[in-house]
Amino acid sequence: MPSEAVLAETLRTVTALLPLHWKFIQDREGFHALCLSRNNRKNISIQRVVYASFDGAFDIFIHRKELLGSWHDDVLRDLVFVPLNSTSLKVFADNVIQVVNRVRKYEICAGVDLPELADLWPTDNLGKIDENPYDESRYERTFRSHDCAYLVPLQHWRCQGCSRVYHNQTKRKKTALKEELHKNTRNDYLNEDVKRAKFKSLQKDFQNAKRKIDHLQSQVTKLMNQESVPIDNDLSENLTEILRD
Ligand SMILES: [Zn+2]
């Protein structure tokens, strides 16, 4: 454990160099450099954490998930890790500032943030809905892949994992729209063959209905002329069918 004087000096040095919206606090094994949300001054959340252990190791967390993989390696690249003591204080503090500045070269992955795809989210098991509890500015509500890298370089919008889910959902949406269109296609959009077949089928239905009505009419007329004659089976069936329709 570094001395009180070293801890106080590290806190003072790093705090003076941190960007706006970043805070630096100490615990029993190291320091937390915290990036706070800025949309609501009072109701804040911690969006990123750079944890610097007294022994010189760094851990990075985005939305409480540990950053791993290539972005993690990039953020820590070429740094010389030193345990904190009175002689290494400057290098240690410089490492903290360097890591924080590198993390700031990345933005949060926006996920599949298209509201028109939102109806597919509850049933898509490739990821989960993100209601933006960390108050990010890039999106209001999104769908994040289980493979989300959480960070992307500033000029990118979504990570590779979320891009795959985005393409998958766009494709599914297009297929669903095509099916819907097919079901409700207006006659003036149908080609001649399809139109003819559709009219032929409608004509057949109409003729069948007309034949049934004619038959019933003649049966009813017959009954009216011969009072108290029981309704025959055929007519009874037709009446039931008509009532059901
Ligand atoms: Zn992502």
List keywords for this structure.
five-stranded antiparallel beta sheet, 245 residues, single chain, 6 helices, two-stranded antiparallel sheet, alpha+beta
Q: What characteristic shape results from the CA principal axes? A: rod-shaped
Radius of gyration: 35 Å
Strand content: 15-25%
Q: Distance between termini?
A: 86 Å
H-E string: HEEEEEHHEEEEHHH
Instruction: Tell me the helix content.
Output: 40-55%
Nearest-integer average pLDDT: 88
Q: Which strand order does the major sheet show?
A: 1-2-3-4-5
Low-confidence stretches: none
Q: Strand tally, please?
A: 9
Number of domains: 3
How would you characterize the largest beta sheet? 5 strands, antiparallel
Structural class: alpha+beta
Give the number of helices. 6
What ligand species are in this complex? Answer: zinc ion
Describe the protein's architecture and organization.
The chain has 245 residues and is of the alpha+beta class. The chain has 3 domains: 4-104; 115-183, no CATH class; 191-244, no CATH class. The chain is built from 6 helices and 9 strands, in the order H-E-E-E-E-E-H-H-E-E-E-E-H-H-H. It has helices spanning 4-17, 69-76, 89-103, 160-183, 192-225, 233-244; strands spanning 22-26, 30-36, 46-53, 58-62, 65-66, 106-108, 127-130, 142-145, 151-153. A 5-stranded antiparallel β-sheet has the order 1-2-3-4-5, with helices on one face. Helix 1 (4-17) runs parallel beside helix 3 (89-103). The protein starts with a helix and ends with a helix. The mean pLDDT is 88. Residues 109, 111, 144-145, 148-149, 158-159, 161-162 line the site of zinc ion.
